[in-house]
């Protein structure tokens, strides 16, 4: 592992690279910064003619140009500060925008396993909190770095010019300051990481509560959620406080070191011999330069805290951006797909686990055949169908679509041949039309969309909605009933007209009317499509062409409903159980 400092520097360099694309604005901002920084030494320098010439010698020229000079200096400084502030703010927002797009697009391409193993709250924190932290801190950091370094260099130059012996006296404290800064850097980075994790926890819990609000209420989970959120929030504040204390302590400590040097200089400068060599104006100007250095020094030490926050957030973001996305190496594309699926000796286990979840599956499914998968919970039904759109890749064996290995097809092409209707209907906060014509289907003709809605028995209720197809259905379709939501997702699948359909049948009981509609909609959806149906209620699969009974990752029985009943095996048992439940 590299030391945190080198890593920190690398992360920072990478962050800065984002603003380099705007180099022309950056150059303008830098000009503004340098000008406003340079006004400080000028100000200190002006005290010398003020004292020596205007006050002691009463020089008329100086008395005239000094006030004009002061006004000019502040006008220039104001304009320069506006210029730099404007461009730096703009670059900061642009960097935020770019990073946010990159992170979102990366999330769109991350493999399914990533989402299954990462807290969604943490992912939301990436898109919001982390990125803001990074952009703000890195850009502000750059501003401070340029502006305050220039100020300090200018002031130091002025002091060296007046008296190099006195100036050198100040530099004695530099190693002490460096020590404090290095210690604070390490601690700040560590704490910043912890703060970020804890923000992820807070978002996660809030997110869970918001999504699961009904469960929370029905099971009286309020006190538990309150405690859980309170604890995460408490931890968050503790970490913030620790970071704040480190930040707050390091600055006065550094300033105390500077004050030590200042005291020493004042002591040395007021010795008889030194005083003789310096005019009163020079002396005051020298002291002023030293005092003016305090603020930029404080800024530079605070900058460290900002940078450590940016770096810690940047590390998280770059780790995500550098993670491998879904493997998409297949080059072939099926233009016409019949929907014939072949599993050849397929065995599968989830990444980083030992247990084979599917074992030596051999299965030929003809185009248009309706396959129903049944079996106990955990027997591998969902896993088997998830392999078709390549949410996971098999470790052994091959799956072929129309004779082509899935791994040889591009993901885009493969998935364009598959439609999915799941238990959890996913609807977007958009119009009915856009929810049906989602993704690739955007832009399909009105007639097609209507026909799909009709075939899904959804037209009737859509037309009763206030704006018909243009009605906004709210967050995940809150405005619709369970059955209506399901019919919309069926309409989406019908519109896609994909030759292969995955149907994860809903377990939720619907009223007879709704169920009749949905059954009719499904009949329309299934016709002429190769269908993999995960069936929970056996009554719905009696018409399947073939029923596969799964157990511990294997297909143990296969055949039509009547054949399997006659076999009197596992299926017959399941059937008897359910028949018993239903009566
Ligand atoms: N993402 C995952 N990572 C690791 N193991 C998993 C994952 N998803 C499922 N499993 C395991 O794989 C096995 C099969 O799960 P699968 O979801 O395919 O079963 P199922 O038959 O569809 O069950 P159900 O009817 O309850 O939906 C289970 O033992 C489960 O614990």
UniProtKB/TrEMBL annotation:
Keyword hit for ATP-binding: yes
Transmembrane segments: 21-43, 63-88, 145-162, 168-185, 248-271, 277-297
The keyword Membrane appears for this protein: yes
Keywords annotated in UniProt: ATP-binding, Cell membrane, Lipid transport, Membrane, Nucleotide-binding, Translocase, Transmembrane, Transmembrane helix, Transport
Molecular function via GO: ABC-type oligopeptide transporter activity; ATP binding; ATP hydrolysis activity; ATPase-coupled lipid transmembrane transporter activity
Cellular location(s): Cell membrane
Major localization class: membrane
One Pfam assignment: ABC_membrane
Any one GO cellular component localisation term in the record: plasma membrane
Bilayer topology term: Multi-pass membrane protein
Domain annotation ABC transmembrane type-1: ranges: 27-309
Domain ABC transporter: start-end pairs: 341-577
Record protein name field: ATP-binding cassette, subfamily B, MsbA
């Amino acid at each position: 592992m590299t030391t945190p400092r080198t890593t920190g520097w690398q992360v920072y360099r990478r962050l800065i690279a984002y603003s380099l694309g705007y180099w022309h604005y950056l150059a303008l901002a830098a000009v503004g910064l340098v000008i406003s920084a340079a006004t400080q030494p000028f100000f200190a320098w002006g005290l010398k003619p003020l004292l020596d010439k205007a006050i002691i010698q009463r020089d008329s020229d100086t008395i005239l140009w000094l006030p004009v000079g002061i006004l000019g200096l502040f006008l220039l400084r104001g304009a320069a500060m506006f210029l730099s502030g404007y461009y730096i703010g703009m670059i900061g927002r642009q960097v935020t925008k770019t990073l946010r797009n990159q992170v979102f697009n990366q999330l769109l391409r991350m493999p399914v396993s990533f989402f299954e193993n990462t807290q969604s709250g943490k992912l939301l924190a990436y898109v919001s909190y982390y990125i803001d932290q990074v952009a703000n801190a890195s850009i502000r950091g750059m501003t401070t770095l340029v502006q305050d370094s220039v100020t300090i260099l200018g002031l130091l130059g002025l002091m060296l010019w007046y008296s190099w012996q006195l100036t050198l006296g100040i530099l004695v404290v530099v190693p002490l300051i460096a020590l404090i800064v290095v210690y604070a850097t390490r601690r700040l980075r560590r704490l910043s990481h912890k703060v970020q994790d804890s923000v992820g926890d807070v978002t996660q819990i809030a997110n869970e509560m918001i999504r699961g609000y009904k469960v929370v209420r029905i099971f009286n989970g309020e006190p538990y959620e309150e405690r859980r959120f309170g604890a995460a929030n408490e931890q968050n504040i503790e970490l913030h406080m620790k970071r704040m204390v480190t930040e707050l302590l390091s600055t006065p400590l550094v300033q105390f070191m500077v004050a030590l040097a200042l005291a020493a200089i004042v002591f040395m400068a007021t010795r008889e011999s030194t005083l003789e060599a310096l005019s009163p104006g020079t002396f005051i100007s020298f002291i002023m330069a030293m005092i003016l250095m305090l603020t930029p020094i404080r800024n530079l030490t605070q900058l460290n805290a900002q940078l450590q926050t940016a770096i810690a957030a940047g590390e998280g973001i770059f780790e995500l951006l550098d993670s491998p996305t879904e493997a998409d190496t297949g080059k072939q594309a099926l233009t016409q797909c019949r929907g014939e699926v072949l599993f050849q000796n397929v065995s599968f286990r989830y990444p980083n686990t030992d247990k084979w979840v599917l074992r030596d599956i051999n299965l030929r499914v003809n185009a248009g055949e309706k396959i129903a998968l049944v079996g106990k919970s955990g027997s591998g039904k969902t896993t088997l169908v998830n392999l078709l759109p390549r949410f996971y890749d098999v470790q052994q064996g091959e799956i072929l679509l129309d004779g082509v290995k899935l791994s040889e097809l591009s993901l885009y092409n493969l998935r364009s041949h598959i439609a999915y209707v799941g238990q959890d209907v996913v609807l977007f906060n958009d119009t009915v039309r856009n929810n049906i014509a989602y993704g690739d289907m955007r832009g399909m003709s009105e007639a097609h969309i209507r026909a799909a809605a009709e075939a899904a028995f959804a037209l009737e209720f859509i037309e009763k909605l206030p704006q018909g197809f243009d009605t906004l259905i709210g967050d995940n379709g809150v405005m619709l009933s369970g059955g209506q939501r399901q019919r919309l997702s069926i309409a989406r699948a019908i519109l896609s007209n994909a030759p292969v359909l995955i149907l994860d049948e809903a377990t939720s009981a619907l009223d007879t009317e709704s169920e009749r509609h949905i059954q009719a909609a499904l009949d329309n959806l299934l016709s002429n499509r190769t269908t993999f149906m995960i069936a929970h209620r056996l009554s719905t699969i009696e018409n399947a062409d073939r029923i596969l009974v799964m157990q511990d990752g294997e297909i143990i029985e296969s055949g039509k409903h009547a054949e399997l009943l006659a076999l009197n095996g596992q299926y017959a048992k399941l059937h008897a159980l359910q028949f018993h439940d239903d009566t």
